Amino acid sequence: EKGGYDHFMLKEIAEQPRAVADTLLGRVGADGLLTLDEMRLSDQELRDINKIIVVACGTSYHAGLIAKYAIEHWAGIPCEVELASEFRYRDPILTRDTLVVVISQSGETMDTLMAVRHAREQRSRVLAICNVNGSTIPRESDAVLYTHAGPEVAVASTKAFLTQLVACYLVALYFAQVRGTKFGDEISQIIAELAETPSRIEEVLETMEPVRELARSLADERCVLFLGRHVGFPVALEGALKLKELAYMHAEGFAAGELKHGPIALIDEGLPVVVVVPSPLGQRVTHEKIVSNIQEIRARGAKTIVIAEEGDSTVEPYADALIRVPAVPTLLQPLVATVPLQVFACELATAKGHDVDQPRNLAKSVTVE
Ligand code: F6R
């Protein structure tokens, strides 16, 4: 049932183009706009929402961090993102016009479920983004948008994450459509770009051999850092989490802008640092800043592993290893930039002889607090 792959994780990484396409399926009308009636929130309810709080754990939380950029940029609604385990033990200011979006692959994560209950007790509406039909979290929520990743067996989340991103983009765009914060043709344009991402992900998957080789060469390292900015920051966090859980290595993700506020002190001769570079066109200013970060850390001895858009030649002189991803609109970059990091972690863990499908100490769904 691993379909010819050595591990479920490899199979699930390979399934990502299909998973993304399936999550879009049936949600785009002939006019190129979204039809999300399945969400069970009326247009009036969507117009009344004045704040969104996204709540999740682990990898799903990283999807939430990316959702914030899309929701604020496209829909113009203030958005906060919080870990479920923190959200429920503070006193968030929630009203009927706050939408709490919970993201959970399994639909059974106890902390996230408790956050749903906490939000509903305060009369907020809850929208669940979930991969398992009829699981507890969607059952207890007001509305649900299912991801169609198919069953995810490997403990480390891969295809579910990419489909969560798609669902988040759809929610942000749907708000923009209903509230009129973007013109219809802009929305259909973005949706058309989104519909192209399965083939972009396919392209990434076809060029992973050098990434595997690189991963194997780093199997004896003790620590790997990950840097990113804008939507590349949560991608860096996700890359670090994958490496921790699979390779049992110290791995940490930072916002590249924070480097000089502390983390740069960690840079030492030979330390591998993965940098997720924003698009030079879509993110001109942050791109420039991150290129100088790469120069700074390299001057201090870091081994720079750079993930950059095809055609971005500015990074070439400073990259010890260069991983190319196709150019896509800035907000969609996580859909392509995360994939090499999944492959990297999986291969590095395999090189160390670890069971990538069943990492030590971890369970697929965390049904205790
Ligand atoms: C990481 C991973 C976990 C889950 C987290 C939330 O690879 O799988 O961090 O993302 O336990 O699980 P769900 O999404 O099922 O609520």
Which molecules are bound in this entry?
fructose -6-phosphate
Report low-confidence residues grouped into runs of 5 or more: none
- Shape designation: globular
Number of helices: 13
Structural class: alpha/beta
Helix content: 40-55%
Using only C-alpha atoms, the radius of gyration works out to 20 Å
Order of helices and strands: HHHEHEHEHEHEHHHEHEEHEEH
Q: Would you mind describing this structure in some detail?
A:
The protein has 369 residues and is α/β, with parallel strands linked by helices. Helices cover 45% and strands 15% of the residues. The chain contains 13 helices and 10 strands. The chain has a 5-stranded parallel sheet with strand order 2-1-3-4-5, sandwiched between helices. Strands 7-6-8-9-10 form a 5-stranded parallel sheet, with helices on both faces. Helix 11 links the parallel strand 6 (223-228) and strand 7 (250-255). The longest helix is centred in the middle third of the chain and has 23 residues, at 184-206. The chain is globular. Bound molecules: fructose -6-phosphate. Fructose -6-phosphate is lined by residues 57-60, 104-106, 109, 112, 156-157, 241, 245, 365-366.
